[in-house]
Sequence to fold (454 residues):
Amino acid sequence: MAIKVKVEFLGGLDVISSGVREHKLSVPLEEGEATLKDLVDYITKTIITDPKDIPVFIEDDTVRPGILVLINDTDWELEGGEEYVIESGDVFTFTSTLHGG
Amino acid sequence: MTEERLPVRKVKVTALCELCHGRKAVMKRPKNLQKLCKECFYNVFETEIHNTITDAELFKPGDVVAIGASGGKDSTVLASVLKTLNERYNYQLKLVLLSIDEGIKGYRDDSLATVKRNQAQYEMPLEIVSYKDLYNWSMDEIVACAGMRSSCTYCGVLRRQALDRGAAKLGINHIVTGHNADDVAETVLMNILRGDTARLEKSTTIVTQSTGSPIRRSKPFKYTYQKEIVLYAHYKKLDYFSTECTYAPEAFRGTTRELLKSLEAIRPSCIMDIIYSGEHLTLKPKKKKITPKYKNQKKVNDEVEVNADGSVSLNKEFKDAGLEMNRAKVSIENNASIDGAAKLSKTLEQLSF
Ligand SMILES: [Zn+2]
Fold:
């Protein structure tokens, strides 16, 4: 069964998805097993418009340092980071802290 | 009886705030790894900035202070926090937003719209000073003429001057900017990597003032992490603009920034640590000037040089070479400056900082 989640790209990070800030996704993964890491892989494969932009989002196989990740508005560092088990209804917010002061 | 199998669900452990021990923690402070709830985070964030302001005695009652406002996250949060603190602690400041219109299509025109909304949201007067009015050339025209090379460094010098002129026009002698701890650490690191010890000493000072200039500049966010500024803006739903400038930043700064972000991912305190190191590095008093041969030609690569009195000017070599080379190109590409290259060259040479 697909997991329904919302993904947001803020702080200028929407450049990687043709300027679309909010994405409602049905992720074809097993609920209870799929982790944020799987979701990030899925996003990289399906949402990033131009493969050239992948390094804007991913570095060394993980979310690039300088991108703030929130899970339901909570710092992902408090939720187990990439190991977080995703659930239907979750909201994932990726905000670039690197764009324009 | 058949046993009904409930779906196995991992129990989510939510951490409690380490300050109030009552609410759910939503963030982890990079500075000390403390886990805080939203309310305690706001409180700690604002109080630390208040402490920075009072420790450095940045303001006196009755001061009129210009906030260098770009519409970006740092200056937007700065305007919001200064308004909050001014009211909470009765600083008795008059706060004014001061914006520079560099004349960069698709970037500054949009971010200025944000500043105009901030003007209404924070009930502060807004003054906009443009390169076009001040220098007769917009940044787009300058880049079309002088080329992309180091336009960022170049633009920084012009902006600094424009802010000073804007403040002077308003009779204000104190400008606060949104430079944060990450920016300060980045500058320290860059100066170390370039061996620029002259600028290294100045790079961590919270208040700077050029000799002969009546205008003070200060950085109330000197100890404030970028991550916390972004989180504050996010949780408070502040209206900020986050599109990258059309012109690429100086490559060396960009690489230094990435290095710093990678270091921070491993050791979040490194930003404070670098600032601390910068603050405690003092240069040996200069002996007689013995300039190593390789440093004889002072900073050939730098388009901007610091004069003896601390003011800044554009390197003559840059002005001549850069502008000359591109004259021909301009007359074809840019209608606005058909007769302009020579004039721009002249204008830029007359700039004294
Ligand atoms: Zn709390």
Notes: Residues 67 and 96 of chain A are 5 Å apart (CA to CA). Residues B 17, 19-20, 23, 36-37, 39-40 surround zinc ion (CB under 6 Å).
